[in-house]
Design goal:
By secondary structure, this protein is α/β, with parallel strands linked by helices. It folds into 2 domains: 6-119 and 268-282, Quinolinate phosphoribosyl transferase, N-terminal domain (Aldehyde Oxidoreductase, domain 3); 123-265, Alpha-Beta Barrel (TIM Barrel), CATH 3.20.20.70. The protein is built from 11 helices and 13 strands. A 6-stranded parallel β-sheet has the order 6-11-10-9-8-7. β8, α8 (199-208) and β9 form a beta-alpha-beta unit. α1 crosses α4, α3 runs antiparallel to α4 (92-122) and α8 runs parallel beside α9 (220-230). The chain is elongated and about 70 Å long. The two termini are 31 Å apart.
Length: 287
């Protein structure tokens, strides 16, 4: 279905439905006849990059396996306003119960993918690669990082056990970058990334044998100077204070990567609608 482990997706869906449904959808059970069948279309109400549609459809399927779910577009597609994303039909009670959870998922993840694509477009042709960060809503890390991939970014660390990144608070308990890098090497870990804030630290990290330097909150002249000092001896990653208005200028300094927390931390949800119709024999009526 997606390049996320199926068990991870199913755990998320079960948790999300439990959060929203509780012991049952008492309104639908009271108002909707048990044998009612709904048909509907999920549509984009604005331009977007789609992400999470397979998860949204699986939400409906989890509540009723007899539901017919027909995706018409794919995650990662640039979707025009008004495009029908999927057709859905099945038992009305189950579909109405799943509706909010399903929409929340695809709206949130498509919002991340859409904002990510905007950043990727700004740095096109520079050679710099956009990275996401660990600034994600707890419990949604894997899905958020999937959405950034749909938008064209690459994933940075998925978890703390994914890669070494020595940051300022790690250095606070060491006598310097050299000692911290030496300890990581002694632990048999590589590659090694070190966060640096000054040009002196850039030189120190290079001397210590760091593989990548995270150039933290540097202005444009300092970033340019850092890239010249590194001169290909390590990879460079700009981070901190990056937004759509300045990312192009940052990329043009020659850094290899730019990490942006905003794409997962501050992406607005997109507008996706679900319009239902109820079947009455051979006729249909709006609900």
């Amino acid at each position: 279905m997606m390049d996320i482990h199926e068990a991870t997706v199913q755990r998320f869906i079960e948790s999300a439905l439990a959060e929203d449904v509780g012991s049952g959808d008492i309104t639908s059970q009271a108002v909707i006849p048990e044998d009612s069948i709904f048909q509907g279309v999920m549509s984009a109400r604005e331009e977007m990059v789609l992400a999470g549609l397979p998860i949204a459809l699986e939400v409906f399927g989890t509540l009723d396996r007899s539901a017919v779910l027909e995706p018409l577009v794919a995650d990662g597609d640039l979707i025009a306003e008004g495009t029908v994303l999927a057709r859905i039909s099945g038992p009305a009670r189950a579909l109405l119960t799943a509706e909010r959870t399903a929409l929340n998922v695809v709206q949130h993840l498509s919002g991340i993918a859409t904002l990510t694509r905007a950043y990727v477009k700004r740095i096109a042709g520079t050679g710099a690669v956009l990275l996401d960060t660990r600034k994600t809503i707890p419990g949604l890390r894997m899905l958020a990082k999937y959405a950034t991939r749909m938008g064209g970014a690459e994933n940075h660390r998925l978890r703390l056990d994914s890669a070494v990144l020595i940051k300022d608070n790690h250095l606070a308990v060491c006598s310097g970058i050299g000692e911290a890098v030496a300890r990581v090497k002694a632990a048999g870990l590589s590659p090694i990334e070190v966060e640096v804030e000054t040009l002196d630290q850039v030189a120190e990290a290079l001397d210590a044998g760091a593989d990548r330097l995270l150039l933290d909150n540097m202005d444009i002249p300092t970033l340019s100077a850092a890239v010249r000092i590194v001169s290909g001896r390590a990879q460079t990653e700009a981070s901190g204070g990056v937004h759509l208005e300045n990312i192009r200028e940052i990329a043009e300094t020659g850094v290899d990567f730019i990490s942006v927390g905003r794409i997962t931390q501050s992406a607005p949800a997109v507008d996706i609608g679900l319009d239902w119709r109820r079947k009455f024999g051979d006729k249909q009526a709006d609900v």
